[in-house]
Write a sequence for this structure.
């Protein structure tokens, strides 16, 4: 009984490690770059040990285009994204919505325009969304990455 408990703990430990670090270093060529989940990495080798370092965030989710460094932002049509790097962890996440003129629209806020259009930025099922309402239609746009953390201030403002 004791052996099986130890084996179960051992196996579950390695299953968790595998889930946390899904990057396969066998195919990693020192000096090469790759992108996974909007994060850009560089492979390295020191003696017999292979590893990778985080270079930045990659809005294109491939090796083309700009690479964002720590705290840099990237605007797409309806959303502002930012890059957060903390040692061996990185997140490319949505920071806020953008209205049709490119102004930041924070989560939990709405903005109306003289033509009757109203834009509302909100979170639903861990996704930041922008609702665009006119007299003729009601559309929802959603960010390409989930909201990784949400802070609700005492005054009710939401910060992501």
């Amino acid at each position: 009984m004791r052996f099986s408990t130890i084996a179960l703990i051992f196996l579950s430990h390695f299953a968790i490690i595998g889930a946390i670090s899904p990057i396969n270093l066998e195919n990693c060529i020192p000096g090469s770059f790759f992108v996974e989940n909007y994060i850009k990495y560089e492979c390295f080798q020191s003696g017999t040990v292979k590893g990778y370092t985080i270079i930045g965030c990659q809005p294109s989710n491939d090796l083309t285009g700009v690479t964002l460094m720590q705290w840099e932002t990237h605007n797409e049509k309806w959303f502002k994204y930012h890059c957060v790097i903390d040692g061996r962890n990185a997140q490319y996440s949505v920071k806020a919505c953008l209205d049709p003129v490119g102004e930041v629209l924070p989560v939990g806020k709405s903005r109306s325009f003289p033509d009757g259009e109203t834009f509302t930025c909100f979170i639903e099922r861990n996704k930041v969304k922008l609702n665009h309402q006119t007299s003729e239609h009601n559309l929802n746009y959603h960010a390409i990455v989930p909201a990784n953390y949400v802070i609700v201030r005492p005054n009710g403002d939401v910060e992501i």
